[in-house]
UniProtKB/TrEMBL annotation:
Keywords: Carbohydrate metabolism, Cellulose degradation, Glycosidase, Hydrolase, Polysaccharide degradation, Signal. It comes from Planomonospora alba. This is Endoglucanase. Residues 740-849 form the CBM2 domain. SUPFAM superfamilies: Carbohydrate-binding domain, E set domains, Galactose-binding domain-like, Six-hairpin glycosidases. Residues 223-242 are annotated as: Disordered. It holds the Pfam family CBM_2. Belongs to the glycosyl hydrolase 9 (cellulase E) family. PANTHER family: ENDO-1,4-BETA-GLUCANASE.
Length: 849
């Protein structure tokens, strides 16, 4: 801001002397302040965090200042507060406190430095007279106490009429240097502590002051297996470290207990092994059962994690079987039981539930032909019901999303409530069934409505072979949601509606429209949705932002689905090519990054690990489309970062890697606070480094952190170390991708739909041996889009499981000589929706010796 001339500052300080409270030490004229700065982000250069406010106002970041519209009609100054917590004060130290502020119209406010709890003892209390044009204010005081967590607050309540308050350059100088927290980062050689695949890339990072190449050595059982020289990479902006990279990709021998030594430091041990991701695939998906609301978690299925059902209408719970709206929002109640708790809180949010259940369903959808997700593989209550467990798990959430839709005959019928959660934030620890807070439905939003449209359209085709009634119910809900969103396309969630639960606000839902239209088009093939997709700006724009996609950026979901799931879009080839372009972009970022990160913004976002994994999803889809090895290698290298090749030298997944996150923010896996409770289950991803460090623990320990260091494995660090349903989803997606066998090469498959009539279709499949050896016995697997069934078949044994079909040779066509082909065929029964040619074929052949 522009500073007023010196004479003004002087007369101002005289005026202020009169208004300062008697107990406050005397204000001083602007004098050079000494000592370290105790306020975090008092200049509001990039935002308002970690400042907070009472619920009746919202913090705005306005022209590099913090501003707030103060409501009228409050009685006391403390009825409206803006403040910052966890300011350390040292006894007998003298501090300089200063800020600049405006009020329009002019008002007298209160600025306090005080105890953060009853009796709110004030160490400094002043009454600045704020004007429209604005002034600078400065004071000094001597702290009478040692206190690690004093508060700086502006009390701006007590006005009959509303006004606007703005503040800038808040500074408290003096006292001790803020505590410097130094994380234990172990050896300076950073590796994927879980391991490397024999045929995959193998890279490591060395932290060193050296600028010339140094020697490295790969060892196992005391023997040197490989040697080489590091590549100096200079100072890495994401960590502030001078680093070298190490490439030992030439080593392919499987084994345990490898170590890498360079510059006198030896890495933590790791494996080179084939099946590194099978366990993670299962654990990352098992995570969802223990996040379930509205059902008892069985201890026999999750030893150590059993707990009573949460929010099923039993006291002290006040939900979720008959939930009213927030005051004035609606006059009905809804039964919105079930679903997954969003994260470490007990809230259930449709926008975030939407991307989560979509990605969990996509784990299944991408590998439908592979048969790698089965009934019984996740140990859930539904195991054994004939439906793959991953779909049963997804259904638990999808049923909840359906319940959030406004019933016919009510205002906004067809729209979907944005969220349901506690009326006020609860503390930690608190098991779900012990939550006594009132639960409330929040207003409907277009974003939530489109999340339901998208996921219900996807569920309609995935559940068709298992439960036609559920599939039809989803399709109908998706159509209703789509129509309602079209009719009310800009009903946004209120950014200030963040008490007791997250706001999940988003003022641009054109991307949600695109994603929903894409899912509806894939499922129905209908012109309305095709035309919408083709006309959407998101269909052709470069949507591959470096910061990745998430619940608020969903155009990428639409594009990936249109590329990966068979459909009849006229520009499908371009859509598929665009995914490769996106993946190439992430590969380039990764290559330039000495820690192999496909994400390198100057500041890391909330949930950065999720964004990194989603960039890897783009690479993985590119691999599925093109078969090009570079994309799969990029995904593997990205996992290295998640599992230990990072500045903190730790894995971000519970139970994976020698040093791994384990205290993720959660109200019920709160072992750090109550030893009788468990840590989060194995396979739980932590949100990871977040430059904005919004929570008090991170602020106390990490201020000034370089991006990769903006993380702490503390349960109270909700802005860097939470667990969420949307973050575990890409982890499960990527782990499944890496665990699945690669579709076999050396054959060409031609799949032709020869005839299609109202009830059926006629298909012929030809397998050509493009390899050099004879095939002696084979199976070929593919899957239908929806509920299609094989009826009669010839020249191969055909069996069907859900949408997946397996063709097995007959005796007479067991052998396929090099260059030769076999052809078989079948008559299928039609199902609602399109019947596109499958694109993923899994061939298994026995090769002649
Ligand atoms: O993941 C969300 C992040 O993108 C937002 O910036 C942040 C603030 O609105 O909220 C995060 O989501 C939290 C949600 O609001 C409440 N449940 C826990 C979520 C993860 O921290």
């Amino acid at each position: 801001m522009i500073r007023p001339p010196a004479w003004l500052a002087l007369s101002l300080s005289t005026a202020l002397a009169a208004t300062a409270l008697a107990l406050a030490p005397s204000p001083a004229a602007a004098e050079p302040a000494e000592g370290p700065e105790q306020i975090v982000n008092g200049t509001f250069d990039t935002g308002t965090a970690p400042w907070w406010s009472t619920a009746n106002t919202a913090l705005e970041h306005d022209d590099g200042r913090l501003c707030a519209d103060v409501p009228g009609g409050t009685a006391n100054p403390w009825d409206v507060i803006i403040g910052q917590n966890d300011i350390a004060l040292a006894k007998d130290e003298t501090y300089a406190f200063s800020f600049s502020g405006t009020a329009s119209p002019g008002r007298v406010a209160k600025a306090l430095i005080q105890l953060p709890v009853d009796p709110w003892t004030q160490f400094l209390a002043v009454n600045p007279e704020l004007s429209v044009s604005g002034n600078d204010y400065s004071y000094t005081f001597t702290s009478p106490v040692d206190l690690p967590n004093a508060q700086v607050v502006f009390q701006v309540g007590g006005s009959e009429t509303p006004w606007r308050f703005c503040v800038d350059d808040v500074s408290l100088k003096g006292g001790a240097e803020p505590e410097v927290y130094v994380p234990d980062t172990g050896p300076r050689v950073r590796v994927n502590m879980v391991g490397y695949l024999p045929g995959g890339p193998k890279k490591a990072t060395l932290v060193t002051e050296k600028t010339e190449p140094v020697a490295w050595r790969l060892e196992r059982d005391g023997e040197t297996v490989a040697e080489g020289e590091t590549t100096p990479r200079g100072v890495d902006a994401s960590s502030g470290q001078n680093v070298h990279s190490i490439d030992f990709g030439s080593v392919e021998a499987a084994g345990t207990g490898y170590t890498l030594t360079a510059d006198g430091e030896t890495s933590r041990p790791f494996d080179i092994a084939d099946d590194l991701y099978g366990g993670l695939k299962t654990d990352a998906l098992k995570f969802y059962y223990t996040q379930r609301s509205g059902i008892e978690i069985r201890d026999d299925l999750r030893p150590g994690y059993g707990r009573p059902a949460g929010h099923l209408g039993a006291a002290p719970n006040q939900g979720d079987t008959e939930v009213p709206c927030q005051q004035g929002v609606c006059d009905y109640t809804l039964d919105v039981r079930g679903g997954w708790y969003d994260a470490g809180d007990h809230g259930k949010y449709v926008v975030n539930g939407g991307i989560s259940v979509h990605q969990v369903m996509s784990v299944f959808e991408r590998a439908k032909a592979d048969g790698t997700h089965r009934d019984g593989d996740l140990d859930i209550p539904e195991s054994g019901n004939g439906v793959p467990d991953v779909l049963d798990e997804a259904r638990w959430e999808q049923e909840f999303l359906l319940r959030m839709q406004v019933p016919e005959g009510r205002p906004h019928a067809g729209m979907v409530h944005h969220k349901i959660h506690d009326a006020a934030w609860t503390g930690l620890p608190l098991l779900p069934h012990l939550d006594p807070q009132k639960r409330e439905l929040h207003p409907v939003s277009t974003a939530a409505t489109l999340n339901l449209a998208a996921t219900a359209a996807q569920a309609a085709r995935l559940f068709a072979p298992y439960d036609a009634e559920f599939a039809a119910r989803n399709l109908q809900a998706a159509r209703r949601a789509w129509a309602a969103a079209k009719a009310d396309p800009a009903r946004y969630a209120d950014p200030a509606d963040g008490v007791g639960g997250g706001a999940y606000n988003d003022n641009d839902v054109t991307d949600e429209f695109y994603w929903a239209a894409a899912e509806l088009y894939i499922t129905t093939g209908e012109k309305e949705f095709r035309d919408f997709v083709l006309a959407s700006p998101h269909h052709t724009a470069d949507i591959w932002r470096e910061r990745g996609f998430d619940w608020g950026n969903t155009a990428q979901l639409g594009r990936l689905q249109l590329a990966a799931v068979p459909n009849g879009l006229p520009d499908r080839a371009r859509v598929r090519a665009s995914v490769l372009e996106g993946a190439d972009k992430y590969l380039a970022v990764q290559e330039a990054h000495p820690y192999g990160l496909p994400y390198n913004p100057p500041d890391f976002d909330w949930g950065s690990n999720n964004l990194i994994l989603n960039n890897m999803v783009v690479m993985a889809v590119a691999h599925d489309i093109s078969g090009e090895a570079k994309y799969r290698r990029g995904v593997l290298e990205g996992m290295d970062y998640i599992l230990g090749r990072n500045a903190l030298n730790q894995s971000y997944v519970t139970g994976y890697g020698e040093v791994a996150a384990k205290n993720q923010h959660s109200r019920w896996y709160a072992r750090q606070l109550d030893p009788s409770l468990p840590n989060p289950p194995k396979g739980t991803l932590s949100g990871g480094p977040n430059s904005a460090i919004q929570d008090p623990v991170a602020q106390a320990k990490l201020r000034g952190c370089k991006p990769q260091f903006c993380y702490i494995d503390d349960i109270e660090s909700w802005s860097t170390n939470e667990l969420t349903i949307n973050w575990n989803a890409p982890l499960a997606w990527i782990a499944s991708f890496l665990a699945d066998p690669l579709p076999a090469g050396d054959v060409k498959v031609t799949y032709t739909n020869h005839g299609q009539w109202p009830e059926g279709f006629n298909t012929q499949v030809t397998i050509t041996n493009t390899g050099k050896k004879a095939i002696e016995g084979w199976t070929l697997r593919w899957s239908f889009l929806g509920g299609q069934r094989v009826r009669r078949h010839w020249n191969a044994e055909l069996s069907q499981d859900g949408a997946a079909v397996t063709a097995k040779n007959e005796r007479h066509n067991r052998v396929i000589k090099p260059g030769a082909s076999v052809t078989f065929g079948f008559i299928g029964a039609e199902a609602p929706g399109p019947n596109p040619k499958p694109e993923r074929f899994v061939f298994n052949g026995t090769l002649a010796r």
